[in-house]
Amino acid sequence: MSPIDQLISNFQELAAQVPGIVQPFIVMLAGAIPFVDGEGAAIIGIAGGLHPIVAGVAAAAGNFLCVLLVVAVTSRARTTIVDRRRSPVGVSGGAGARSSALGAYQETAATKPESKGRRRFNRWLVRFGVPGASILGPLAIPTQITSAILVGGGTPRRWVLLWQAISIVIWTTIGTVAAWATLTFVIEVS
């Protein structure tokens, strides 16, 4: 069993064992985990016995809160880096030390190949822009990583948050309805 499968299984067991009032918080926590996201957390909640609407809302809220945190941290880091690049070089650091460190970083970054998901995401970003990359991004990589890439690349935070929220609602709704329909019509659990 893969680590993600084990994590999902543990969340399902936990959600089934805690009192009903605590279950949505367990689902929110699961939604905040990359690769589980809102759709996986909604499935965990429904399998744990939550009403599908409560599971879907809790999963989407957890996923969005995590994306909000990632966007805030990434935006702050990007602003710090951009501001540092604009500031004049101090006497203690020296231009030579800074340029050689930058060259070493660029050399390391150039030798490391991009992952398959990152290449796919970049193609979608170029072809469909931020809305398309946000909505199609979860097919390749988690929403948290998608939002970090977009903000790190210079996309305005509000634009990323808007389209990530839309994406989370779409994908969590799809996951919730699919889990509910499967349990109701295929497995016939009432």
Task: Explain this structure.
- The protein is mostly helical.
- The chain has one domain.
- It has helices at 3-17, 23-31, 37-47, 52-86, 95-111, 116-136, 143-152, 157-186.
- The radius of gyration is 20 Å and the shape is elongated.
- Residues 93-108 have low confidence and may be disordered.
* Total domains: 1
**What general form does the structure show?**
elongated
Percentage of residues in helical conformation: over 70%
Largest sheet: none
Count every helix, treating DSSP H or I runs of 4 or more residues as helices.
Answer: 8
Gyration radius, rounded: 20 Å
Task: Show unreliable segments.
Answer: 93-108
